[in-house]
Description:
The protein is α+β, with helices and mostly antiparallel strands. It is built from ten helices and nine strands. The chain has two domains: 8-295, no CATH class; 304-378, no CATH class.
Amino acid sequence: MKKIVLTTAALLTLLAVTGCASDSKDTGSSSSTEASSTAAAESSSNAATADITIADGSTKDSAPAEGTVYMRQLLTAPHGTKSFAVVNVTMNGDKILGVQFDEFQYVSPDDFTGVPNADGAFGENFPTDTVLASKRENDKAYSAMMADKGGATQNWSDSMDAIIDFAVGKTAGELEAAVADLDALGEDDSPADIVTGATFSDTSGYLQAIIDTANTGMISEGVKTTTEDFKEAQLLGAPHGDKSFSVTTVALDGDKLATVTVDEFQYVDPADFGGVPNSDTDFGADVQGGLVLSSKQANNEAYSAMMADKGGATNAYSDNMAAITEFALGKTVKELEDTVKELDGLGEDDSPTDVVTGATFSDTSGYLQVIIDAMNAAK
């Protein structure tokens, strides 16, 4: 991944204003990287984000009955106003069997590696002199920033994994009781008194994000199984061009795919699309071109209309993704790799739907490949 080099002055300016840098909550100050920005400019920027709507991917659809594994995914804002999170839970009935959790924030490209396509057209919309980065993939750099700015004594991933370990095996209702206990802690108490190993002051916020996901997240139905021991991974990718990046989460039952969720994020017009959480505050304040970072799944109707208008698409985005993920269920890496070879060998007059029923994406093989990559990471 290509990195952008900042001048020393620009780097010092960015570090002075970059938020979410410690175990403590964000202050809510502007995320602008321009040290010389006036109060009037900040006020104008905040006004520009005030009318942005949020699309977090929540649903009121009912989950599958017990006996079928499934995933729920939700976009949340568990920690301040300068980042957003992708939260994914694997469930069977009302029991949480796995959690994958990552946060994304604009930070210094001198110290952090950006998401896929940060060095392509996607990155052209980043706020000046920043890069959109995954905290999990930049755990060392982000943890160093937490230690420097907030005196954190533990890596981001260590606290996050402690929260996840606490949540697995429980129901949303059981986690709600833990959140109540955390919120009742005194100033001299530590979140680790309730969630062993978790030092985040926002531990209750992270647990609440898992609860909300388990209750209202977008549903991806998997296979019927009694297995509760899955191998999981969440991986970033770029299955479709250079204007977006993807988050793919898989759960494997043995060597076969049991359930999967794929979403993509792209900068689009806020007049037609809802942004990720915090797009209406600091996180979205300085995005280039007046655009907003949005989830394609959470904006299925708007994104499908754009596909139809610009490319003549006849299927909705979510219908294509459902066809691809349903095709992948129950298959091994080898079986999916064989399918990708078959798709890549299609002629100009052939259609991806000849191989993957219902999938009309020209990049169908790309979407299968990010699933394959995540499955390999889970092994």
